[in-house]
Design goal:
Elements lengths: L1 H25 L4 E4 L5 E9 L2 E8 L3 H4 L14 H13 L3 H4 L12 E12 L4 E11 L10 E5 L16 E11 L6 H22 L1
Parallel strand pairs: 4-7
Antiparallel strand pairs: 1-2, 2-3, 3-7, 4-5, 5-6
């Protein structure tokens, strides 16, 4: 009888352990969005500050793309936009997309790519200025960084590719919020649950005898 009880508990333990790891891995997966040529157009499931986001890499001007500021403005740095760019460096620009930045949509230079996350726009007295936080995905011999800001007069520019010399290495990160990360209970919560189930099973077996 006891052997049957412990066999059932062992099976239940395996199910609980599998559930724990499957839930943890489910919240750690980032799905890259690429075309048939392997060009990186974005990623789904990027986690920033306990929220899940999808991001797309697009070239063009701020007004043409209809960009809006998604992340909150915090002073001093690091801002939420900087943390978003750090998430890009840590979880999206990996493998071949780290060693060869030219594989990212909008970036043509294999030595590095500047990815801009919109943070702020304001009127400076003559023109509207755009401010974006920068993630720099360096080529194979470089060092990736995720701080700093980029500013320009966007109502006077026809493209984000300004100044001209930086055209091949600038691209927007267009973010959209999916929702909060689902909390995963700590392992000790599962252990307590399993112990409680085991106690109930043993109590019922004892009562039946």
């Amino acid at each position: 009888m006891m052997q049957t009880v412990w066999s059932r508990l062992s099976t239940l333990l395996k199910v609980v352990v599998f559930f724990i790891f499957s839930q943890q891995s489910a919240h750690a997966n980032v799905s890259l969005v690429t075309d048939s040529n392997g060009i990186l157009f974005g990623a789904n499931g990027v986690v920033v500050d306990d929220f899940i986001y999808n991001v797309r890499f697009q070239d063009g001007s701020w007004p043409d793309l209809g960009l809006s500021v998604l992340f909150s403005i915090e002073q001093p740095e690091p801002s939420q936009a900087t943390r978003a760019n750090k998430a890009l460096i840590d979880t999206v620009f990996t493998g071949i997309y780290d060693t060869n930045p030219a594989l990212t949509n909008g970036c043509l230079d294999p030595t590095g790519c500047l990815i801009l996350t919109p943070r702020l726009s304001f009127f400076n007295g003559s023109q509207v200025r755009a401010v974006a936080n920068v993630a720099y995905n360096a080529g194979e011999a470089g060092v990736d960084t995720f701080d700093g800001t980029f500013q320009f007069n966007y109502n006077a520019d026809t493209s984000i590719n300004v100044p001209g010399a930086l055209g091949p290495v600038l691209v927007w990160a267009v973010w959209s919020k999916v929702g909060p990360v689902t909390p995963v209970p700590e392992p000790h919560h599962y252990a307590m649950l399993l112990a409680g189930i085991g106690f109930i099973v043993l109590a019922k077996r004892k009562h039946a005898v």
